[in-house]
Design a protein that fits this description.
498 residues, alpha+beta, Pdz3 Domain, 2-enoyl-CoA Hydratase, Chain A, domain 1, 6-stranded mixed sheet, 4-stranded antiparallel sheet, 14 helices
């Protein structure tokens, strides 16, 4: 049978139309994420996880034994798996594998990370007991302030389970422990409890107790926008500004007004009138905030009789960074805020070389050449009155840009860090999604060091004044700051004495 030109053209048009329809379907209706994985899909996701960890994880590279242990555990899981495996089980297994990296940024999130899995309250440790606070900052039961059990299990057991997912530096951080306790679904699997959309908590006054049944809430419902807030207790002069994750001009205007008010105070320089800026929500670079802080505090301001003395920093590097090398690495993919060391002055480069940051000595290293992050600079003369003390609040929830701000402020003479040790997650992150389960993975793709050679990644930044989370809810916060400030000053004077 001979086909006519018209028939051939029609058949060709039909094939093209079917191909276009298939492409359109795949574009607008992408491959659905599976909740039940067969053995091949389960194995494929685990193998992709292992390969990405080998290629990109900085913490796996700095201690190769970690990767060996993770690979052995994953191989055993693949051998033991049979039939179908739920993606939730795989997510829990991946989180357990990631915890072996000792990487504070490592996390495995289920495809539907807004599932019913979060406790609807904030567990806070006051130094002796755990308490349950509402998202608005009030005790759930003022007459029964202490949280003793969750689902009939003592709170101490939940704390113990949370430590399996924390880095060595964070195991004793109550803030980090609380983060995992809120993610009750993961810890239930760790303890051996069945999954449920509800939880029963036991609250106590030390003698009697009550139980409350709570429905777990969606993850995104707890992530409400943090407003700029000025907390001023009735008996305290301390002002606490809680910055949102995105700082705008209006926020900075409020900060400027408060700073002006503090300067006009009769007790300038007294810790009791200090301004506390809570920077824990800052995760992404904020140019306006950085410029504001640099303008007011990045100069060593003093009065020499003729005005202010501008002592700009001799050293421009805040810290040194190394990426994990990988096969397809490209220099143009490195974040612009991490330039090479060659951009520093000759003498600063020599000083860093003498401290061990020498690119000529790392040719066979799994890490890139050393990069740096420069201090923020501001050309205008500072307007802050000498002696005014400002505090930046940090704790284990302070990570990424929050930690970079904290690190930069350590060289600002009028700024001190207050709170608890930060998370130790300053480096760029590597993120990817597993093809079958849709599980999202992230971990650190670089290591960050202080310019003196001390490792910051996985260690964190210590504040000058250590205050637990609950202390910031007390009316006498100014007295606590004054007490610790005087103790710190006395110690410094003793150390300087001949």
């Amino acid at each position: 049978m001979t086909l006519s030109y018209k028939s051939i053209f029609g058949a060709f048009t039909l094939v093209i139309s079917l191909s276009a329809a298939l492409l359109s379907y795949q574009l607008f209706f992408p491959k659905q994420i599976k909740t039940e994985l067969n053995h091949r899909q389960y194995q494929q996701d685990l193998l992709m996880f292992l390969e990405a960890t080998k290629q990109h994880s900085a913490f796996a590279a700095i201690e190769p034994q970690r990767l060996i242990t993770i690979t052995e555990t994953a191989s055993r899981l693949m051998l033991e798996a049979s039939g179908f495996n739920h993606s939730t089980l795989l997510q829990q297994q991946l989180q357990q594998l990631l915890s072996q990296l000792n990487d504070p940024a490592a996390i495995a999130l289920a495809h539907n990370s807004t599932s019913l899995e979060m406790l609807p309250f904030e567990p806070i440790f006051d130094g002796q007991n755990w308490q349950a606070f509402t998202p608005q900052g009030r005790l759930m039961e003022p007459d029964f302030p202490y949280l003793s059990h969750i689902d009939g299990i003592p709170i101490s057991r939940w704390v113990q389970a949370s430590q399996h997912y924390l880095t060595n530096a964070l195991k004793h951080s109550s803030v980090a422990q609380a983060t995992w306790i809120k993610q009750i679904g993961q810890l239930r699997a760790e303890i051996g409890l069945r999954a449920s959309n509800e939880s029963v908590i036991t609250l106590s006054d030390g003698e009697t107790s009550v139980q409350r049944s709570l429905s777990l809430v969606q993850h995104n419902k707890l992530q409400t926008k943090v407003p700029v807030k000025q907390d001023k207790a009735s008996t305290s002069q301390a002002q606490i500004f809680r910055l949102p994750s995105q700082v705008d001009a209006e926020t900075l205007l409020s900060l400027t007004h408060q700073l002006t008010s503090q300067q006009a105070d009769d007790h300038i320089g007294s810790p009791s009138s200090a301004l506390i800026i809570d920077i824990r929500e800052i995760k992404q670079p904020q140019q306006q905030l950085t410029a504001w802080l640099s303008k007011h505090f990045s100069h060593a301001v003093g009065n020499d009789g003729d005005g202010y003395v501008d002592n700009k920093f001799k050293h421009q590097a805040i810290a040194v960074l190394q990426y994990k090398r990988f096969a397809t690495a490209r220099a143009d993919r490195i974040a612009s805020q991490y330039p090479p060391m060659e951009q520093l002055s000759f003498f600063e480069q020599i000083e860093l070389n003498n401290r061990g940051f020498d690119n000529d000595l790392i040719q066979d290293s799994p890490f890139s050449d050393y990069l740096i992050r420069k201090r923020p600079t501001f050309d205008e003369a500072p307007t802050t009155v000498a002696g005014l003390q400002v505090f930046l609040r940090i704790d284990a929830s302070c990570e990424q840009e929050c930690e970079w701000l904290a690190l930069a402020s350590k060289q600002w003479p009028q700024v001190s860090l207050i709170g608890e040790t930060s998370r130790g997650s300053l480096s760029p992150l590597h993120r990817f999604t597993l093809p079958n389960s849709g599980i999202k993975i992230q971990f650190s793709s670089a290591l960050v060091y202080e310019t003196n050679g001390q490792l910051l990644s996985g260690v964190g930044i210590d504040p000058e004044l250590q205050l637990q989370q609950q202390a910031f809810r007390k009316h006498n916060i100014d007295e606590l700051i004054t007490e610790k400030w005087l103790a710190k000053t006395s110690t410094a004077n003793i150390n300087r004495a001949p």
